[in-house]
Amino acid sequence: MTAIEHHDVVVDGKRIHYRACGTGHPVLLVHGWPTSSYLWRAVMPAIAAKGARAVALDLPGFGGSDKPIDGSYSFRFFDRVLDGFVNHLGAPAVDLVVHDLGGPVGLYWAATHPERVRRLALLNTIVYPQLSWAVLLFMALNKLPGVRDAFTSPRGLRWAMNFGVAHPLPGDVMAEYLAPFADRGARRALQKAAGGNLHRDGMKTIERYIKSLRIPVRLIYGDADPILPEIGRTMRRLQRDIPHAELTVLAGAKHFLHEDRPAELARLLADFVA
Fold first, then answer.
1. b/e code 137-171 from CB counts within 10 Å (16+ = b)
2. Cβ contacts of 159 within 8 Å, gap of 6 or more
3. What is the pLDDT of residues 100-123, one digit of tens each?
4. With contact defined as beta carbons under 8 Å apart, do 92 and 118 qualify?
5. Predicted TM-score (pTM) of this structure
6. Which domains does the chain have, with CATH numbers?
7. What is the dihedral of CA 6, 92, 53, 215, to 10 degrees?
8. Burial, 39: exposed, middle or buried (Cβ in 10 Å; 0-12, 13-18, 19+)?
9. What is the rounded distance in angstroms from the CA atom of residue 160 to the CA atom of residue 27?
10. DSSP 8-state secondary structure symbol assigned to residue 251
Protein backbone atom coordinates (compact mmCIF):
# COMPACT_ATOMS: atom_id res chain seq x y z
CA MET A 1 0.00 0.00 0.00
CA THR A 2 1.34 3.43 -0.96
CA ALA A 3 2.26 5.54 2.05
CA ILE A 4 0.47 8.83 2.73
CA GLU A 5 2.85 11.79 2.97
CA HIS A 6 2.29 14.98 4.97
CA HIS A 7 3.28 18.38 3.56
CA ASP A 8 2.86 22.09 4.23
CA VAL A 9 2.73 24.97 1.77
CA VAL A 10 2.02 28.68 2.13
CA VAL A 11 -0.91 29.82 -0.01
CA ASP A 12 -2.41 33.32 0.07
CA GLY A 13 -0.36 34.00 3.20
CA LYS A 14 -1.71 30.95 5.03
CA ARG A 15 0.04 27.71 5.93
CA ILE A 16 -1.88 24.87 4.33
CA HIS A 17 -1.32 21.32 5.49
CA TYR A 18 -2.09 18.47 3.11
CA ARG A 19 -1.81 14.72 2.68
CA ALA A 20 -0.64 13.19 -0.61
CA CYS A 21 -0.34 9.66 -1.91
CA GLY A 22 0.86 8.21 -5.23
CA THR A 23 2.01 9.72 -8.51
CA GLY A 24 0.20 10.77 -11.67
CA HIS A 25 -2.55 13.25 -12.39
CA PRO A 26 -3.80 14.94 -9.18
CA VAL A 27 -7.14 14.07 -7.60
CA LEU A 28 -8.06 16.87 -5.19
CA LEU A 29 -10.15 15.73 -2.21
CA VAL A 30 -11.97 18.51 -0.34
CA HIS A 31 -13.44 17.86 3.13
CA GLY A 32 -16.20 19.73 4.94
CA TRP A 33 -17.16 20.75 8.49
CA PRO A 34 -15.72 19.86 11.03
CA THR A 35 -13.31 17.37 9.46
CA SER A 36 -9.96 17.55 7.65
CA SER A 37 -7.83 15.66 5.16
CA TYR A 38 -7.90 12.80 7.69
CA LEU A 39 -11.39 12.05 6.39
CA TRP A 40 -9.89 10.74 3.12
CA ARG A 41 -7.22 8.43 4.58
CA ALA A 42 -8.93 5.18 3.48
CA VAL A 43 -9.69 6.50 -0.01
CA MET A 44 -6.26 7.83 -0.94
CA PRO A 45 -4.26 4.57 -1.33
CA ALA A 46 -6.92 3.12 -3.64
CA ILE A 47 -6.73 6.20 -5.88
CA ALA A 48 -2.92 6.00 -5.88
CA ALA A 49 -3.10 2.33 -6.86
CA LYS A 50 -4.89 3.38 -10.05
CA GLY A 51 -1.98 5.57 -11.15
CA ALA A 52 -3.19 8.93 -9.82
CA ARG A 53 -1.93 11.25 -7.08
CA ALA A 54 -4.48 11.61 -4.30
CA VAL A 55 -4.17 15.00 -2.60
CA ALA A 56 -6.30 15.97 0.39
CA LEU A 57 -5.80 19.43 1.87
CA ASP A 58 -6.87 20.85 5.21
CA LEU A 59 -8.89 23.93 4.34
CA PRO A 60 -8.01 27.08 6.33
CA GLY A 61 -9.72 26.82 9.71
CA PHE A 62 -9.40 23.04 9.80
CA GLY A 63 -6.91 20.27 10.47
CA GLY A 64 -3.26 21.28 10.49
CA SER A 65 -3.75 24.43 8.43
CA ASP A 66 -3.80 27.99 9.75
CA LYS A 67 -7.00 29.02 11.46
CA PRO A 68 -7.22 32.82 11.16
CA ILE A 69 -9.87 34.24 13.48
CA ASP A 70 -10.15 37.31 11.23
CA GLY A 71 -10.66 35.22 8.07
CA SER A 72 -13.90 35.78 6.16
CA TYR A 73 -14.30 32.08 5.23
CA SER A 74 -16.29 33.31 2.23
CA PHE A 75 -16.40 31.89 -1.29
CA ARG A 76 -13.66 34.28 -2.42
CA PHE A 77 -11.52 33.48 0.63
CA PHE A 78 -11.53 29.76 -0.18
CA ASP A 79 -11.33 30.39 -3.93
CA ARG A 80 -7.94 32.12 -3.55
CA VAL A 81 -6.65 29.27 -1.40
CA LEU A 82 -7.80 26.49 -3.72
CA ASP A 83 -6.47 28.20 -6.83
CA GLY A 84 -3.10 28.86 -5.21
CA PHE A 85 -3.00 25.30 -3.92
CA VAL A 86 -3.68 23.82 -7.37
CA ASN A 87 -0.94 26.07 -8.74
CA HIS A 88 1.37 24.54 -6.14
CA LEU A 89 0.50 21.06 -7.42
CA GLY A 90 1.91 22.11 -10.80
CA ALA A 91 -0.89 20.62 -12.89
CA PRO A 92 -3.11 22.52 -15.33
CA ALA A 93 -6.21 20.66 -14.10
CA VAL A 94 -7.34 18.24 -11.39
CA ASP A 95 -10.03 15.68 -10.73
CA LEU A 96 -12.18 17.16 -7.96
CA VAL A 97 -13.98 15.23 -5.19
CA VAL A 98 -16.03 17.15 -2.61
CA HIS A 99 -18.01 16.43 0.56
CA ASP A 100 -20.21 18.43 2.97
CA LEU A 101 -19.29 22.16 3.09
CA GLY A 102 -16.31 21.27 0.93
CA GLY A 103 -18.90 20.95 -1.84
CA PRO A 104 -19.75 24.66 -2.08
CA VAL A 105 -16.08 25.54 -1.53
CA GLY A 106 -14.84 23.28 -4.33
CA LEU A 107 -17.74 23.91 -6.68
CA TYR A 108 -17.40 27.69 -6.49
CA TRP A 109 -13.72 27.38 -7.34
CA ALA A 110 -14.60 25.02 -10.21
CA ALA A 111 -17.26 27.45 -11.47
CA THR A 112 -14.75 30.30 -11.58
CA HIS A 113 -11.97 28.13 -13.06
CA PRO A 114 -13.84 25.50 -15.14
CA GLU A 115 -10.81 24.75 -17.29
CA ARG A 116 -8.99 23.44 -14.21
CA VAL A 117 -11.39 20.54 -13.48
CA ARG A 118 -11.24 17.34 -15.58
CA ARG A 119 -13.66 15.19 -13.60
CA LEU A 120 -16.01 15.89 -10.72
CA ALA A 121 -17.34 13.63 -7.95
CA LEU A 122 -20.00 14.82 -5.50
CA LEU A 123 -20.63 13.00 -2.23
CA ASN A 124 -23.08 14.04 0.54
CA THR A 125 -22.90 17.79 0.03
CA ILE A 126 -24.73 21.07 -0.58
CA VAL A 127 -25.18 22.24 -4.17
CA TYR A 128 -28.19 24.48 -4.71
CA PRO A 129 -29.10 27.96 -3.39
CA GLN A 130 -32.38 26.67 -1.96
CA LEU A 131 -30.89 25.63 1.38
CA SER A 132 -32.68 22.95 3.39
CA TRP A 133 -34.10 23.49 6.85
CA ALA A 134 -31.26 21.37 8.27
CA VAL A 135 -28.57 23.60 6.75
CA LEU A 136 -30.37 26.78 7.78
CA LEU A 137 -30.70 25.46 11.33
CA PHE A 138 -27.00 24.58 11.43
CA MET A 139 -26.05 28.09 10.28
CA ALA A 140 -28.44 29.71 12.78
CA LEU A 141 -27.12 27.68 15.71
CA ASN A 142 -23.59 28.77 14.89
CA LYS A 143 -24.61 32.42 15.25
CA LEU A 144 -25.87 32.03 18.84
CA PRO A 145 -22.90 32.60 21.21
CA GLY A 146 -23.77 30.08 23.90
CA VAL A 147 -25.02 27.44 21.49
CA ARG A 148 -22.12 27.72 19.07
CA ASP A 149 -19.60 27.44 21.92
CA ALA A 150 -21.27 24.23 23.06
CA PHE A 151 -21.53 22.93 19.50
CA THR A 152 -17.81 23.41 18.81
CA SER A 153 -16.65 22.16 22.23
CA PRO A 154 -14.95 18.74 22.34
CA ARG A 155 -18.20 17.25 23.58
CA GLY A 156 -20.24 18.96 20.88
CA LEU A 157 -17.88 17.93 18.09
CA ARG A 158 -17.82 14.37 19.38
CA TRP A 159 -21.61 14.33 19.23
CA ALA A 160 -21.66 15.84 15.72
CA MET A 161 -19.23 13.27 14.33
CA ASN A 162 -21.05 10.32 15.90
CA PHE A 163 -24.40 11.72 14.73
CA GLY A 164 -23.12 11.45 11.16
CA VAL A 165 -22.00 7.81 11.25
CA ALA A 166 -23.81 4.51 11.53
CA HIS A 167 -21.72 3.34 14.50
CA PRO A 168 -19.74 5.35 17.10
CA LEU A 169 -16.22 6.15 15.96
CA PRO A 170 -13.34 4.38 17.75
CA GLY A 171 -11.54 6.49 20.34
CA ASP A 172 -8.33 6.91 18.33
CA VAL A 173 -10.26 8.01 15.22
CA MET A 174 -12.35 10.49 17.18
CA ALA A 175 -9.19 11.87 18.79
CA GLU A 176 -7.77 12.65 15.33
CA TYR A 177 -10.87 14.59 14.35
CA LEU A 178 -10.95 16.56 17.62
CA ALA A 179 -7.23 17.33 17.96
CA PRO A 180 -7.16 20.38 15.62
CA PHE A 181 -9.72 22.18 17.81
CA ALA A 182 -8.11 21.76 21.21
CA ASP A 183 -7.72 25.50 21.83
CA ARG A 184 -10.31 28.28 21.97
CA GLY A 185 -8.91 30.21 19.00
CA ALA A 186 -9.21 27.18 16.73
CA ARG A 187 -12.80 26.67 17.83
CA ARG A 188 -13.62 30.33 17.09
CA ALA A 189 -12.26 29.90 13.57
CA LEU A 190 -14.35 26.74 13.19
CA GLN A 191 -17.45 28.74 14.17
CA LYS A 192 -16.70 31.33 11.48
CA ALA A 193 -16.22 28.58 8.90
CA ALA A 194 -19.67 27.12 9.63
CA GLY A 195 -21.59 28.17 6.55
CA GLY A 196 -19.88 31.50 6.00
CA ASN A 197 -19.34 30.43 2.39
CA LEU A 198 -23.02 29.85 1.58
CA HIS A 199 -23.81 33.34 0.28
CA ARG A 200 -26.74 33.15 -2.14
CA ASP A 201 -24.91 34.79 -5.05
CA GLY A 202 -22.13 32.24 -4.76
CA MET A 203 -24.61 29.37 -4.60
CA LYS A 204 -26.33 30.67 -7.74
CA THR A 205 -22.95 30.72 -9.48
CA ILE A 206 -22.59 27.06 -8.52
CA GLU A 207 -26.08 26.25 -9.82
CA ARG A 208 -25.25 27.77 -13.22
CA TYR A 209 -22.00 25.80 -13.33
CA ILE A 210 -23.76 22.53 -12.53
CA LYS A 211 -26.17 23.02 -15.42
CA SER A 212 -23.30 23.68 -17.83
CA LEU A 213 -21.22 20.59 -17.02
CA ARG A 214 -19.95 18.39 -19.86
CA ILE A 215 -17.07 16.72 -18.00
CA PRO A 216 -17.47 13.26 -16.40
CA VAL A 217 -19.46 13.49 -13.16
CA ARG A 218 -19.87 10.87 -10.43
CA LEU A 219 -22.55 11.06 -7.72
CA ILE A 220 -22.08 8.88 -4.61
CA TYR A 221 -24.05 9.28 -1.42
CA GLY A 222 -25.17 7.63 1.78
CA ASP A 223 -28.97 7.60 1.86
CA ALA A 224 -29.35 7.55 5.67
CA ASP A 225 -27.74 10.97 6.17
CA PRO A 226 -29.22 12.72 9.27
CA ILE A 227 -27.09 15.84 8.74
CA LEU A 228 -28.26 16.47 5.18
CA PRO A 229 -31.63 14.66 5.23
CA GLU A 230 -32.53 16.14 1.84
CA ILE A 231 -29.52 14.54 0.12
CA GLY A 232 -31.66 12.10 -1.89
CA ARG A 233 -33.66 15.01 -3.33
CA THR A 234 -30.44 16.89 -4.10
CA MET A 235 -28.97 13.91 -5.95
CA ARG A 236 -32.13 13.39 -8.00
CA ARG A 237 -32.03 17.05 -9.00
CA LEU A 238 -28.38 16.68 -9.96
CA GLN A 239 -29.31 13.74 -12.17
CA ARG A 240 -31.83 15.95 -13.97
CA ASP A 241 -29.35 18.80 -14.37
CA ILE A 242 -26.45 16.50 -15.38
CA PRO A 243 -28.04 13.65 -17.37
CA HIS A 244 -24.69 11.99 -18.08
CA ALA A 245 -23.75 11.75 -14.37
CA GLU A 246 -23.44 8.25 -12.90
CA LEU A 247 -25.12 7.71 -9.53
CA THR A 248 -24.42 5.20 -6.76
CA VAL A 249 -26.42 5.01 -3.53
CA LEU A 250 -24.69 3.49 -0.50
CA ALA A 251 -27.76 2.18 1.28
CA GLY A 252 -27.67 2.63 5.04
CA ALA A 253 -24.55 4.82 5.00
CA LYS A 254 -24.86 8.13 6.82
CA HIS A 255 -23.21 11.51 6.28
CA PHE A 256 -19.59 10.45 6.78
CA LEU A 257 -19.70 7.60 4.28
CA HIS A 258 -15.88 7.58 4.38
CA GLU A 259 -16.22 6.07 7.87
CA ASP A 260 -19.29 3.93 7.25
CA ARG A 261 -18.26 2.37 3.91
CA PRO A 262 -14.55 3.19 3.36
CA ALA A 263 -13.62 0.25 1.14
CA GLU A 264 -16.63 0.65 -1.14
CA LEU A 265 -16.20 4.41 -1.44
CA ALA A 266 -12.49 3.97 -2.16
CA ARG A 267 -13.21 1.49 -4.95
CA LEU A 268 -15.87 3.67 -6.57
CA LEU A 269 -13.72 6.80 -6.56
CA ALA A 270 -10.59 4.96 -7.70
CA ASP A 271 -12.46 3.45 -10.64
CA PHE A 272 -13.86 6.87 -11.56
CA VAL A 273 -10.54 8.71 -11.67
CA ALA A 274 -8.50 5.87 -13.19
1. ebeeebeeeeebeebbeeebbbebbbebbbeebee
2. none
3. 999 999 999 999 999 999 999 999
4. no
5. 0.97
6. 5-273 (3.40.50.1820)
7. 130
8. buried
9. 28
10. T
